[in-house]
Design goal:
Radius of gyration of chain B: 20 Å
Strand content of chain A: 35-45%
Order of helices and strands of chain B: HEEHHEEEEEHEHHEE
Number of strands of chain B: 10
Order of helices and strands of chain A: HEEEEEHE
Oligomer: heterodimer
Strand order of the largest sheet of chain A: 2-3-4-5-6
Mean pLDDT of chain B: 81
Largest sheet of chain A: 5 strands, mixed
Number of helices of chain A: 2
Number of helices of chain B: 6
Strand content of chain B: 25-35%
Structural class of chain B: alpha+beta
Distance between the termini of chain A: 20 Å
Chain lengths: ~90, ~170
Amino acid sequence: MDKETLKKILIASFDYYAGGSGNFEPYVVIDEARDTYIMLSRQKDKVNVVLMAQIVENQIRIIRDQTDRPWEKRLMNAGIPAEQIIWE
Amino acid sequence: MQESRQNRLYGNKALHRKVTEFGDFLILKANAFRRMNGSASITRRSPMADDKDLALLVNILKVNGWQVKARPYRLDIDDIYLYIDLWVEKISLVLIDLKTYHKSTVEFAEEIVGTWIKYQTAFELLGEVKSPLFIAMRQESYQKLMEHRFTQELVKGISILVYNVETHEIEWIP
């Protein structure tokens, strides 16, 4: 799968994690220059990284997944081959 | 620069003003992000098997007069983030997490117990979630659980929502 498609699927995957409602406010950060994609949570003055990944050499490198709904599984279900997803 | 980048990512000029740009970064408040993403020409992914079951459950709940307030319902416990499938309302508000039978009966029961303990622990720590939680499953999955004394015992005390995909009937087992 090419890099542009990886990027589109990665960005689309934030839709689930940032959706719905609950006790934190989600933000999505896209750093195209470094091919880095982040979802932050904010609750009052507390900000944390929920999800963070980078695209490196046609692979998605998951740097952080603090959820109980594995990001890797969602990405694979969206069509990304397992060999194109790695954990840092 | 900003316009072309967003066009590439989202293909929607009208929503550019929703975005804050800091140098190389795009920072999007989630609501704006979701609207942009929803209107984009991003390749549609094939839904997960669980997503199909969830869509079916939502439909059955709607038939029974329930309204979906959130899908999913998000919780944060410090830096751990939990997602409960549904938050629905009719007379009262209820949280629902769907479990799909796809393993052995014992593993299925184990998954239900684990999920129940996870969320109950979160509720205790947060102390602010007032809606009761139900674990939803198809009627045939519930019957499989009830076939064995051991799995029956494992799920004892867990609130379960049983739904019938043919008749659209639902049963709340508190």
